[in-house]
């Protein structure tokens, strides 16, 4: 019965405005939105940087040795954990002459059947045809599915690939990539590994044909050059340690800071009513019932604050297009989860600090 009475009194205080639910809910919502939102934005920025790193070619490795790459072995690297795309490439031997611009030459390369889905190239998939760079497509006015008219025939365009001048290795920005069989040797093996790991690098020598030198940079004979390991685009650094950036971000303390602030808010909100609480004690209200009543009242504004914060946080999460919304929701949820417990602890601590014998002191200090 005392529990029902305490909860009824709490409901009456909430309804009458004595608890100031709206004020404290707004404050709690602001605290949660700022702290959790900062964490969401920080992690989202890390995700954006990671996506930019991949799209620019930072995660694409090139294992180069002219006439020494096994195309089938290179294509099979996608079976390794962390390898998203792989494929071999070689120069076609002769450039292409478009029928509409016969005086112009388009560099042509041959690629292995598995050469596709590179993030740095815009996820191209040749299908039944050749891949042409976006610059070639723009110059000649053609698109995927159309035909590239050449001076000596036609080539079906299976897809377009992006190759902007953003610091990546030159040579492919204005070119055509034509699928070829793997019986002849290739010059380069491209591998997109994400997250990048040493295991992939140590496996690359398996793509060399028998007799080729398997140590990058070594020479075999006076004119031979050993394999080279290159990065398609090193302008954004040789590696991207997203895990370290995530672990060392300052906003990882958002839940702890929110807990301290909300605990202080709960303590202050209850201390403001110490005269009322002491008077109730003097009137015979039991401390246990008073603790329950105050906890119920603070839960009202704590939960209300979380509800008010949800739309803003949801908008911030959905705005981070490069990061998994589920992961960001989990991060924001950690901050939201501490609000009610912290508010209750602060409220109970302040309630326990109230003394009936200090009633007149509270009255004078009101």
Description:
The structure is a single chain. The chain is α+β, with helices and mostly antiparallel strands. The protein has two domains: 2-52 and 244-365, no CATH class; 57-235, no CATH class. The protein has helices at residues 2-16, 21-55, 71-75, 134-140, 198-203, 242-247, 254-271, 274-282, 287-319, 325-337, 339-353, 359-365, and strands at residues 60-69, 83-91, 108-111, 130-133, 147-150, 153-161, 176-179, 186-193, 228-231. Helix 8 runs antiparallel to helix 12. The longest helix has 35 residues, at 21-55. Residues 215-224 have low confidence and may be disordered.
Detail the topology: elements first, then pairings:
Blueprint: H1 2-16, H2 21-55, E1 60-69, H3 71-75, E2 83-91, E3 108-111, E4 130-133, H4 134-140, E5 147-150, E6 153-161, E7 176-179, E8 186-193, H5 198-203, E9 228-231, H6 242-247, H7 254-271, H8 274-282, H9 287-319, H10 325-337, H11 339-353, H12 359-365
Parallel strand pairs: 3-7, 4-6
Antiparallel strand pairs: 1-8, 1-9, 2-3, 2-8, 4-7, 5-6
Helix pairs in contact: 1-9, 2-7, 2-9, 2-10, 7-10, 7-11, 8-12, 9-10, 9-11
């Amino acid at each position: 019965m005392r529990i029902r009475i305490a909860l009824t009194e709490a409901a009456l205080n909430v309804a009458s405005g004595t608890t100031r639910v709206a004020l404290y809910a707004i404050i709690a919502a602001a605290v949660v939105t700022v702290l959790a939102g900062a964490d969401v934005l920080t992690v989202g920025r890390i995700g954006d940087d990671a996506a930019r790193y991949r799209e620019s070619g930072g995660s694409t490795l090139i294992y180069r040795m002219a006439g020494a790459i096994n195309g089938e072995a290179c294509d099979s690297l996608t079976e390794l954990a962390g390898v998203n795309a792989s494929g071999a490439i070689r120069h076609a031997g002769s450039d292409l002459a478009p029928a509409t611009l016969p005086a112009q030459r388009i560099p042509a390369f041959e690629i292995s059947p598995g050469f596709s889905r590179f993030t740095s190239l815009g996820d191209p998939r040749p299908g039944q045809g050749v891949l042409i760079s976006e610059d070639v497509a723009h110059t000649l006015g053609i698109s995927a599915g159309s035909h590239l008219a050449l001076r000596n025939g036609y080539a079906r365009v299976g897809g377009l690939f992006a190759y902007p001048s953003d610091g990546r290795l030159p040579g492919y920005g204005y070119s055509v990539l034509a699928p070829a069989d793997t019986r002849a040797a290739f010059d380069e093996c491209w591998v997109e590994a994400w997250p990048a790991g040493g295991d992939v690098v140590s496996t690359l020598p398996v793509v060399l044909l028998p007799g080729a030198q398997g140590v990058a940079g070594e020479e075999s004979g006076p004119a031979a050059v050993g394999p080279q390991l290159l990065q398609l685009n090193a302008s954004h650094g040789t590696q991207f340690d997203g895990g370290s950036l995530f672990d060392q971000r300052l906003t990882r303390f958002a839940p702890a800071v929110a807990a301290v602030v909300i605990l202080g808010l709960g303590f202050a909100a209850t201390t403001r009513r110490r005269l009322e609480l002491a008077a109730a004690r003097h009137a015979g209200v039991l401390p246990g019932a008073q603790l329950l009543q105050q906890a119920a009242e603070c839960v009202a504004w704590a939960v209300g604050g979380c509800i008010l914060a949800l739309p803003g946080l949801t908008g911030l999460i959905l705005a981070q297009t490069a990061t998994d919304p589920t992961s960001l929701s989990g991060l924001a949820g950690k901050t939201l989860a501490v609000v009610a417990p912290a508010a209750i602890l602060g409220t109970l601590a302040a309630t326990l600090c109230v003394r009936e014998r200090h009633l007149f002191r509270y009255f004078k200090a009101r």
